[in-house]
Design brief:
CATH superfamily of the largest domain: HUPs
Structural class: alpha/beta
Number of strands: 11
Strand order of the largest sheet: 9-8-7-10-6-1-4-5-11
Largest sheet: 9 strands, mixed
Distance between the termini: 74 Å
Protein name: Electron transfer flavoprotein small subunit
InterPro entries: ETF_a/b_N, ETF_b, ETF_beta_N, Rossmann-like_a/b/a_fold
CATH architecture of the largest domain: 3-Layer(aba) Sandwich
Number of domains: 2
Shape: elongated
Number of helices: 6
Low-confidence stretches: none
Mean pLDDT: 89
Helix content: 25-40%
Amino acid sequence: MNIIVCMKQIPDTSEIKIDPETNTLIRAGVPSIVNPYDKNALEAAVQLKEQHGGTVTVISMGPPAAKEALKECLSLGADRAFLITDRAFGGSDTYATSYILASSIQHIGDYDLIICGMQAMDGDTGQTGASMSEHLGIPQLTYAVKIEVADDTVTVHRETDDGVMVISTKLPALCTVGKDINEPRTATMKSKMRANKIDIAEIHVDDMPDIDREKIGLKGSPTRVKKTYTPTIKKSGKKLEGLSCDEAVEALAGFLTEKKILKGELV
């Protein structure tokens, strides 16, 4: 099997802060990590490779710094990696990004299955994987907790409020996964050394002559972020201090009666 995994390098969400003056993300000093759901996608791909043979290719769209995240993916079992990078891709929303990723996959060619994390933790839209399948014209099986492949068919188990849904389709196809599908492995010193020896190829806009430049970057992005801000946390409530138990109960009952939450009298 030839499996492609889509990976996004994101800011560590536990370290994100908002500039109160500009309402934009403060990126300086914020470490970047592999999107956690994409690690689950990679682990699922590597497990399938171990069962059926083949190769696992990881792709990521981003600046040159994203090569560090791709190196990490190589140390976790991927066989090769591509960085999709070009100034023309800057400002792309999820629609434009999915189109660029799909075009890059068509450029790479020869794949049976695409696996993506169900969403990126910096944007939480969950749109890119599904949009890619539409651009590629292949079936999508989303939110998988188990993936099985037999011959030319992929079967996915999905957990729902009503139980487990089992869906099958012919390959090629695209799956998205969450954290419940597996526990990603940890890189070893040997795997890290192997990863450092693998060259990461770059794909630029000029490498894809058939790409529609009207559908990439800001020009090809129908979404516009008008404002980013941290919601103001308003503290509400009333403290009853310095009162005896009976006095506190009487004061609370009076307050609730005044707000028409409590009716009648306390006995």
